[in-house]
Design brief:
The protein is 54% helix and 7% strand. With 174 residues, it is mainly alpha-helical.
Length: 174
């Protein structure tokens, strides 16, 4: 597409695949690109400007920003913040340890594997990092539907949440 764009007077690219469109957008010359989207307009549709940069932000990036913002602004949406902890940990571990935490596996199983390998040549995380992962995961599980049937009504202590948000963000910097 990029090679064609430099040879043609104009290229119009249509797709339902946002990640594909974002990659094309990011690689295109900023002075030579424009983005439009088809938006529902009453019973029909219309073309309007599309903020590609905003749409290219991943869910992980949104959750990570929510956690960081919570520490600064103490937003009232603390239940969403508590739920985001587990997702942020999972996303980090999937990228940092793909051979040990592939898609389809659970964070608890990854933690168990890390514990089993402490002190062996196949160690994944240090003993302290494994303990920190376990502590944060246990807290985050209180706000996860698979691990707590009452996750939607679980009481949230703000000081505790602040501590676990800090620990989650620190874990991702190791």
């Amino acid at each position: 597409m990029r090679r064609l764009a430099v040879r043609a007077a104009q290229v119009i690219l249509l797709s339902h695949n946002k990640p594909f469109l974002c990659r094309i957008w990011e690689g295109a010359d900023p002075t030579m690109r424009a983005a439009l989207e088809v938006a529902r307009d009453g019973a029909g549709s219309t073309l309007r400007a599309w903020d590609v940069n905003q749409d290219c932000i991943t869910e992980h990036d949104r959750r990570h920003a929510m956690l960081r913002d919570y520490l600064v602004t103490n937003t009232p949406n603390n239940r969403e913040v508590a739920r985001a902890i587990r997702h942020a940990l999972e996303a980090f571990c999937r990228v940092a340890y793909p051979e040990h935490f592939p898609p389809g596996t659970r964070l608890g199983a990854f933690r168990t594997l890390c514990r089993q390998r402490i002190g062996t040549p196949r160690q994944i995380l240090s003993a302290q990092d494994t303990q920190d992962l376990g502590d944060v995961l246990e807290y985050a599980n209180r706000f996860h539907h698979d691990t707590n049937p009452a996750w939607e009504t679980e009481t949230i202590n703000d000081a505790e949440l602040v501590d676990f948000v800090r620990r989650t963000l620190a874990f991702g910097k190791r």
